[in-house]
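REQUEST ID: PR-0412
SUBMITTED BY: lab tech R.K.
PRIORITY: routine
TASK: structure prediction, single protein chain
INPUT:
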Amino acid sequence: MKTAAQTTFAERLGRTLGRAWRSCARLDWRAQGWLLARGWAPGIAKAALLAVKLAAIGVLLYTAFWLALLLAFALVGAWVVRNDDGSYDEEHKPEWRYGPAGYGLYTHDDYRIDPHDPEDEQA
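STATUS: complete
OUTPUT:
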């Protein structure tokens, strides 16, 4: 006795896509028939349906463009974060030292950032 042949994923996907295509074509024929029943000329009905299809494709491409751009920015941001060695933070880290305004917390460009009283000579 022969065993039943198993369908592969590619076959199932192809059949599903074929059914979806036939369904879309059937909807297109129904829409064209509906327009013709309303008194539209056949050429104008085809042109109107073509315009709707082109508009739908344009909206999909517009959306895909912005999603791709967003993905590109996310990838660039992730790459920058991944390759950051922290050297900028170490060079610009504030430190406690003696500076122009006495002992205190200074930035890399000699600006005192801790609260102090400039009139107090002991600070």
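NOTES: Residues 32 and 48 are 9 Å apart (CA to CA).
REVIEWED BY: pending
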